[in-house]
């Protein structure tokens, strides 16, 4: 008797699901939209003139519990300037084989250089490609931005860049201004935007070497 009841219970579960809304998504043709505060791939933002917000301080690397970030700082000079102030990141890498997307690094960043986007398509077929370089992480050059190195265009000192930044969200302009939504972008869907990592990605694709 118990076996018969159990059988009907099992069929009941199957039957009840026949009338529920289907949740299958047509991925990758229609990628689901992540929640606005989803923790996805990182972005190194720029100032509105194109200079990098990152000052190479390494606080993000020290805050990371997974040891996923590697930074080497370099000195800006008047002839070759990448960020306002004295220092910039000459090397910046995030290893997505280690990252657990906790967001502690973006909390530690004093300049709001480092933020996280909604981009979740990070799967690669080899470990090397999971190490994203500075060129891949830098926000694209949007309208009015110029590829560094170049002099400070928005003031005479770094203070001019940071004072009033909280009242002026324009100073955080970067990939979060993407037409696809906050922090969401794909190289192939922005033909008019110059992505610093686009050449590398195209080269790898030509060689059939990685995603
Ligand atoms: S999100 Fe967390 S694990 Fe990933 S790089 Fe930042 S601090 Fe490290
Ligand atoms: S991303 Fe932020 S915390 Fe990390 S090195 Fe650059 S300025 Fe410092």
TrEMBL record:
<dbReference type="GO" id="GO:0048038">
    <property type="term" value="F:quinone binding"/>
</dbReference>
<keyword id="KW-0479">Metal-binding</keyword>
<feature type="binding site">
    <location>
        <position position="54"/>
    </location>
    <ligand>
        <name>[4Fe-4S] cluster 1</name>
    </ligand>
</feature>
<feature type="binding site">
    <location>
        <position position="102"/>
    </location>
    <ligand>
        <name>[4Fe-4S] cluster 2</name>
    </ligand>
</feature>
<keyword id="KW-0408">Iron</keyword>
<keyword id="KW-0004">4Fe-4S</keyword>
<feature type="binding site">
    <location>
        <position position="99"/>
    </location>
    <ligand>
        <name>[4Fe-4S] cluster 2</name>
    </ligand>
</feature>
<keyword id="KW-0677">Repeat</keyword>
<dbReference type="InterPro" id="IPR010226">
    <property type="entry name" value="NADH_quinone_OxRdtase_chainI"/>
</dbReference>
<keyword id="KW-0874">Quinone</keyword>
<feature type="compositionally biased region" description="Basic and acidic residues">
    <location>
        <begin position="201"/>
        <end position="211"/>
    </location>
</feature>
<feature type="domain" description="4Fe-4S ferredoxin-type">
    <location>
        <begin position="44"/>
        <end position="74"/>
    </location>
</feature>
<keyword id="KW-0830">Ubiquinone</keyword>
<feature type="domain" description="4Fe-4S ferredoxin-type">
    <location>
        <begin position="90"/>
        <end position="119"/>
    </location>
</feature>
<dbReference type="GO" id="GO:0005886">
    <property type="term" value="C:plasma membrane"/>
</dbReference>
<feature type="binding site">
    <location>
        <position position="109"/>
    </location>
    <ligand>
        <name>[4Fe-4S] cluster 1</name>
    </ligand>
</feature>
<feature type="binding site">
    <location>
        <position position="57"/>
    </location>
    <ligand>
        <name>[4Fe-4S] cluster 1</name>
    </ligand>
</feature>
<keyword id="KW-0411">Iron-sulfur</keyword>
<keyword id="KW-0520">NAD</keyword>
<comment type="similarity">
    <text>Belongs to the complex I 23 kDa subunit family.</text>
</comment>
<dbReference type="InterPro" id="IPR017896">
    <property type="entry name" value="4Fe4S_Fe-S-bd"/>
</dbReference>
<feature type="binding site">
    <location>
        <position position="105"/>
    </location>
    <ligand>
        <name>[4Fe-4S] cluster 2</name>
    </ligand>
</feature>
<comment type="function">
    <text>NDH-1 shuttles electrons from NADH, via FMN and iron-sulfur (Fe-S) centers, to quinones in the respiratory chain. The immediate electron acceptor for the enzyme in this species is believed to be ubiquinone. Couples the redox reaction to proton translocation (for every two electrons transferred, four hydrogen ions are translocated across the cytoplasmic membrane), and thus conserves the redox energy in a proton gradient.</text>
</comment>
<dbReference type="InterPro" id="IPR017900">
    <property type="entry name" value="4Fe4S_Fe_S_CS"/>
</dbReference>
<comment type="subunit">
    <text>NDH-1 is composed of 14 different subunits. Subunits NuoA, H, J, K, L, M, N constitute the membrane sector of the complex.</text>
</comment>
<dbReference type="GO" id="GO:0005506">
    <property type="term" value="F:iron ion binding"/>
</dbReference>
<feature type="binding site">
    <location>
        <position position="60"/>
    </location>
    <ligand>
        <name>[4Fe-4S] cluster 1</name>
    </ligand>
</feature>
<feature type="binding site">
    <location>
        <position position="64"/>
    </location>
    <ligand>
        <name>[4Fe-4S] cluster 2</name>
    </ligand>
</feature>
<keyword id="KW-0472">Membrane</keyword>
<keyword id="KW-1003">Cell membrane</keyword>
<dbReference type="Pfam" id="PF12838">
    <property type="entry name" value="Fer4_7"/>
</dbReference>
<dbReference type="GO" id="GO:0051539">
    <property type="term" value="F:4 iron, 4 sulfur cluster binding"/>
</dbReference>
<dbReference type="GO" id="GO:0050136">
    <property type="term" value="F:NADH dehydrogenase (quinone) (non-electrogenic) activity"/>
</dbReference>
<protein>
    <recommendedName>
        <fullName>NADH-quinone oxidoreductase subunit I</fullName>
        <ecNumber>7.1.1.-</ecNumber>
    </recommendedName>
</protein>
<keyword id="KW-1278">Translocase</keyword>
<dbReference type="GO" id="GO:0009060">
    <property type="term" value="P:aerobic respiration"/>
</dbReference>
<feature type="region of interest" description="Disordered">
    <location>
        <begin position="165"/>
        <end position="211"/>
    </location>
</feature>
């Amino acid at each position: 008797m118990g076996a018969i009841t159990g059988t009907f219970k099992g069929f009941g579960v199957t039957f009840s699901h026949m009338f529920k809304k289907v949740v299958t998504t047509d991925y990758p043709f229609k990628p689901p939209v992540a929640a606005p505060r989803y923790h996805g791939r990182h972005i190194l933002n720029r100032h509105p003139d194109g200079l990098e917000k990152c000052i190479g301080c390494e606080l993000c690397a020290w805050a990371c519990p997974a040891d996923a970030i590697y930074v080497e700082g370099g000195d800006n000079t008047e002839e070759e300037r990448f960020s306002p102030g004295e220092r910039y990141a000459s090397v910046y890498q995030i290893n997505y084989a280690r990252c657990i997307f906790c967001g502690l690094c973006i909390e530690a960043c004093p300049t709001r250089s480092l933020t996280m986007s909604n981009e979740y398509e990070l799967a690669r077929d080899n470990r090397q490609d999971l190490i994203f370089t500075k060129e891949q992480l830098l926000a694209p050059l949007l309208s009015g931005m110029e590829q560094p190195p170049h002099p400070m265009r928005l003031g005479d000192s770094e203070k001019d860049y940071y004072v009033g930044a909280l009242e002026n969200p324009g100073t955080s302009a970067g990939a979060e201004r993407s037409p696809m939504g906050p922090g969401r972008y794909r190289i192939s869907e922005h033909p008019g935007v110059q992505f610093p990592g686009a050449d590398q990605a195209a080269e790898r694709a030509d060689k059939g070497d990685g995603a």
